[in-house]
Predict the 3D structure of the following.
Amino acid sequence: MNKFLKTFIKVAAILIGVIILLAALKIYGHILENPDPHKMVTQYFDRDDKKFYGITSGVATSYLLPCRDGYLLIDTGYQSDYSKFAQALNQIKIDLKDIKYLLLTHSHDDHCGFAAELIKNSGARIIVSKGGMSNLENGKLTVRGKTINRRIYILTSIYNLFKHRDYKFPPVSFTKNDVIINEDDLKFLKSIGINGIVINTPGHTNDSVSVVMEDGRAFCGDAAMNLLNFAGADYRPIFYTDLQLVFESWKKILKKGAKKIFPAHGMPFDSSILENNLAKYCK
């Protein structure tokens, strides 16, 4: 076989692989955009057998925790996910106005995309890091960060191309009733009947925060993920601003007593995975 033919076969194989990948991502994107209404909600139970919910109306999962007089919602999805989120609420017989608080783990469009509309229609108070206020008020992401590796860069670039993602979302307005987190907040959640704390966990973004509950549940936004592990993410955020801070945030989450990690992307996983990865990456 001559050199030209070998080169031709190699190039053809690469093109076929790219076409298959594009088709798979297109199908995957369609599934994310049109989830089965009966599969958007996952019901969980805390150690006292009280229900809480994971709602996956798009690429990200929001968490709905019972609080005094209603619910706390942790994160939203993209702006386009709002109607699907409302369908999911209807499915579990929860009224939009029962959402009294909205905690945003950080100011990325897939976590705060329909925040403005939800606040308008529910009257929920916002809980957010002070560092994320500028992005939220301007309705756009200013720092995208780096990708963990080249494979994930290629995959996410293709996804963003199909998604037509511009990292913008309807601006969020703040009032004097909203709760702005500067340093770790150890009291506010307890004041509304939730046995947990809000801690700063930067690294994915500068404004990332996590909720750690007394029973060991940790709702970490994108501080850790269960996404694209086959492409080398290894439970790390696929985008980061400071990888060393990511690992410091993992240590902090674990030190606060986290036992089960509930990420915004992917299924919950045991905190021992973070411990093992810290041993691997922080030698």
Notes: Residues 39-281 form a domain with the Metallo-beta-lactamase; Chain A fold (CATH 3.60.15.10). The longest helix spans residues 3-33. Residues 22-32 have pLDDT under 50 and may be disordered. The two ends are 48 Å apart (CA to CA).
